[in-house]
Amino acid sequence: MTDIKRRKFVTLFSAGAAAVPLSALITSLPSHAADPMVDPESAQAKALQYTNDAPEGKMCISCALYTEIAGESVGSCPLFPGSSVGAEASCSAFVPKS
Ligand code: SF4
């Protein structure tokens, strides 16, 4: 990878990383209904290897970033603003609840 390509990658990655905390603020607001489910074919889902078939012990419901939606079998995740994630789904950013 050339220096120019590396700089461009780092710049784009940094911009994306900065956007996540802002979206986290938006999605952390109380929700009364589930948003549409994450599209596993979306760029974000593919980048984070989102799957509805979670590996053992790595389900969204066990992730520190997961917020349950009362009365729903899905929840929200700051990495997928505007979408719901399945309680039994997972992604590569899984963080175990402490
Ligand atoms: S970070 Fe990944 S594993 Fe955790 S709740 Fe979000 S989608 Fe699920």
Structural write-up:
This protein has helices spanning 3-27, 43-47; strands at residues 67-68, 74-76, 84-86. It is an alpha+beta fold and 98 residues long. It has one domain: High-Potential Iron-Sulfur Protein, Chain A (Irregular). A three-stranded antiparallel β-sheet has the order 1-2-3, with no helix packed on it. Strand 1 and strand 2 form a beta hairpin. The longest helix is centred in the first third of the chain and has 25 residues, at 3-27. The protein starts with a helix and ends in a 12-residue tail after the last strand. 19% of the residues are buried. Bound molecules: iron/sulfur cluster. Iron/sulfur cluster binds at residues 50, 60, 63, 65-66, 77, 79, 85, 89-91, 93-94.
Structural descriptors:
98 residues; alpha+beta; 3 strands; globular; binds iron/sulfur cluster
Integer-rounded radius of gyration:
15 Å
Strand fraction equals 5-15%
Structural class by sheet pairing and helices: alpha+beta
- Assign the CATH class: Few Secondary Structures
Mean pLDDT: 82
Q: Outline, from the CA principal axes? A: globular
Topology:
Blueprint: H1 3-27, H2 43-47, E1 67-68, E2 74-76, E3 84-86
Antiparallel strand pairs: 1-2, 2-3
This protein binds iron/sulfur cluster.
The site of iron/sulfur cluster has 13 residues, from loops.
